[in-house]
Amino acid sequence: TRVESSSLVPAGDPTLLFTNAGMVPFKDVFLGTEKRPYSRATTCQKSLRISGKHNDLENVGRTARHHTFFEMLGNFSFGDYFKEDAIKYAWEFVTVELGLPKERLWVTVFQDDDEAAALWRSCTDVFDGRILRFGEKDNFWAMGDTGPCGPCSEIFYYLGPDVANQSEEEFRKDDGTYIEIWNLVFMQFNRDPSGGLTPLPKPSVDTGMGLERVAAVKQGAQANYDNDLLRAIIAYTEKLSGKRYLGKDYTDRPTESDPQYGDDVAFRVVADHVRAAAFLVADGVSPSSDGRGYVLRRLIRRACRHGRVLGFKEAFLYRVAAEVVTLMGEAYPELRSAADTIARLVRAEEEKFLGTLEGGLAILGKEVEAVAGRGSKVFPGEAAFQLHDTFGFPLDLTEDLLKAHGLTVDHEAFSAAMEKQRERSRSARASETAQILQRAVKPTPSRFMGYEFPVYESEILGIYGQQGPLERSGEGDEVAVVTAETPFYAESGGQVGDTGSISSNGATLDVVDTQKVGGDTIVHICRVVDGELNLGDRVRLEIDEQRRRRLRIHHSATHLLHLALREVLGAHVKQAGSRVSDQSLRFDFSHYDQLTAAQMEEIEQIVNQLVQENHTVATEVLPLEDAKRSGAVALFGEKYGDSVRVVQIGPRSRELCGGTHASRSGDIGVVQIVAEGAVSAGVRRIEARAGMSALQEIRRERRALDDLLARLGANTENAAERLQKLLERSRQLERDVEKSQQQANLAKGGDLAGQAKVRADGVKVIAAKIEEATPKQLREMADDLRGRMGSGCIALGTVSDGKAVLLTAITSDLTEKYHAGELMKQVASVVGSRGGGKADLAQAGGGDPTKIDQALKRFEELVS
């Protein structure tokens, strides 16, 4: 079945930034979680490799065969044909359909895959001596650390001139003379977390052949960039620039004696990056400061910088992109459909970067001179960050420019500067709304009507955009709107602002937040959904009443919680902050000690008792001093006017508050405390839920409890007793297992002592991997072995919690000659860990457990 190429943006796979191989669209099929109506498929898949382990960006333009964007040819079998047919099909396609000469073809197989080697001999006429075996690094493929995996077999093509004198020795030099043109992956195993391999019930086949590479081979070109497609893009750039491309295959950095190097690299980079950019835009990606959009931005800016090498001073990439559409639009109709968007976005991004390029290059030049003056080879990370932050230079572009001067970037300093900027950005984002509101330079008092009215009609007094006052706003705009009156409550006193809608005859706006500026100006943060809003329009303002109701009950619950805290903990309790949302409340208060379970229960009981008593929630406006004399609690640090609003719930709760509240305490329904903890020294925090939100939390906890009881085979009366017995039984079993393992390991130690290698001088050497041992048990074994051996060197290894654990031990008579800690440093490095210790005993933990045997072998070499 011929399957069309999927998008470069993987569908439903958050683990991948881009589609980077032909098998990506079939990942779920291989994993068995998706069914397709076919068991065989062929594709020509758009792919991009520019992030993660498949990041080829640095090499693009500098080698003959590296690309960001490429087209991957592939044929796939999902539990249908397997090795024999895959090998037959591949050989037939390469030698018959493509007509490549057999005398130039070589094949590699995984070192343990005897079946594939035999099939290549029996099913094809590949030349004798041309089937070579390689290890796991080259010829074993895995989807990840666990999951489907299997050996692979690759077909190579000889590019050299001396066909008669090819050899395995020359092949293994890997100097680019023999290039891989096709990879056949045989998915036949499932790898478990311990590294074990079990056969898959339905083995599958995944193959990949780069179109650019095989096209170059077929056309007799030494480099991918000399195939007809990429050469056509380069030719168009030649025409625009007036410079010539010589097509040299450079692999070293440029020298003064080779002036053409820079031009050739630039031609290649422009061809590759613009092609990638065109396809990304066609698949819905736009330049931005993060994610896929940032990758697109990097590509365009890197191509722009290389365009400068070719003499371009103005935007030109959009014209090259148009040529890509012309050349590839027939095969990929999405390019033609997005042609205008591709040209517009590429041009806009290029022109934006050109505006800062000269300034950035000047800064870079000065810094390079300063580095040279210091006799250093390291470019300051702070300067690289300035280029990134101020001039828009992606780090890889800066590194690219520095290669010509033999300099590298201080990555640690760059990362530190980046983290500081991120911290500043986090703070800036938190106050972004306030910054927009502060642009309302003409404070306009608004009357809040929301205590009585959920809907109100009023007049637009101000419209503010990112840059200041506006006469009107249109669809899609984000604006701040001020009206003469409003039912929307602006965030204050811990209660978040209302949301809802504003509408007129000509426009509809979503109100996403409500804030207050300058004391009396209520500002609605809006997005214009449709139509046009004008200054002076009469509008209908409508809050989200359901959300407001949830806010009201949570705010009233906060007052009752404050009362209960003072009654249980004491009058020293003062509110230190709060946040009331429609789903929960957070209350900070002054208190030094952690609350006990009994105190928490009593507080929750008082609150819910007041709720059940269904007290009236009354409000009145009084002069500030009168309100204080009446016993109303004022919030520390809060600013009050001459007149204040007092909220009273029942006979005991009386606070100064401008927020919205329930009509009666019974409206709250129920209050549940969900968390308590410290905020800082002397300040505690309680989090709670009210109403339906609390009921949902109670139901969730009840489901969890029911599940736990079912697993225990108990009920609420005997669950604790049942759990205690199970824990005691578990601890006893653990002791029994540990004792058994200890005895087994000691017995194993006796066996190991008898199997020790004895050097000519009588010193015994033991290096052994122990199955199912804890680090403690390794130490006990080592102590036992030293007692048995008399004079010797010991290395033991095991896997604990999925990680390598290594131990080295030296008998006392040898510690002058061997130091266990120093030996461990070298042994641990094999598994990618660090270790050390005393002269007679050392230990290391962590690292790759699959390399324990290599580490033990290294120990034997060190003490032999």
Topology:
Layout lengths: L1 E2 L23 H5 L8 E9 L1 E2 L2 E2 L13 E9 L5 H15 L7 E6 L3 H10 L7 E4 L1 H4 E3 L4 E12 L9 H4 L6 E14 L5 E14 H8 L9 H14 L18 H23 L8 H19 L7 H12 L4 H5 L1 H35 L4 E2 L1 H11 L3 H9 L4 E2 L1 H20 L1 H7 L8 E2 L6 E11 L2 E3 L1 E2 L4 E6 L1 E2 L13 E4 L3 E11 L3 E11 L1 E2 L3 E6 L1 H25 L5 E6 L4 E6 L6 H16 L4 E7 H6 L13 E7 L3 E4 L14 E10 L2 E8 H22 L6 H37 L1 E2 L5 E6 L5 H15 L2 E9 L2 E8 L9 H11 L4 E3 L3 E5 L6 H12 L1
Parallel strand pairs: 1-2, 6-7, 12-13, 14-19, 33-34
Antiparallel strand pairs: 2-5, 3-4, 5-11, 6-9, 8-9, 9-10, 10-11, 15-16, 15-18, 15-24, 17-23, 18-22, 20-21, 20-24, 21-22, 25-26, 26-31, 27-28, 28-29, 30-31, 32-33, 34-35, 35-37, 36-37
Helix pairs in contact: 2-3, 7-8, 7-10, 8-9, 8-10, 8-12, 9-12, 10-12, 12-13, 13-15, 17-18, 21-22, 23-24
Fold and architecture overview:
It is a single chain. The chain is of the alpha+beta class and 864 residues long. The protein folds into 5 domains: 2-224, Bira Bifunctional Protein, Domain 2 (BirA Bifunctional Protein, domain 2), CATH 3.30.930; 227-428, no CATH class; 435-538, Elongation Factor Tu (Ef-tu), domain 3, CATH 2.40.30; 548-688, Threonyl-trna Synthetase, Chain A, domain 2 (Threonyl-tRNA Synthetase, Chain A, domain 2), CATH 3.30.980.10; 756-863, Roll (Diaminopimelate Epimerase, Chain A, domain 1), CATH 3.10.310. The protein is built from 24 helices and 37 strands. The strands form 9 sheets. Strands 1, 2, 5, 6, 7, 8, 9, 10 and 11 form a 9-stranded mixed beta sheet that branches. A 6-stranded antiparallel barrel has the order 15-18-22-21-20-24. Strand 6, helix 3 and strand 7 form a beta-alpha-beta unit. Helix 8 crosses helix 10. It is globular. The chain starts with a strand and ends with a helix. Mean pLDDT is 87; it is low at 250-257 and 426-431.
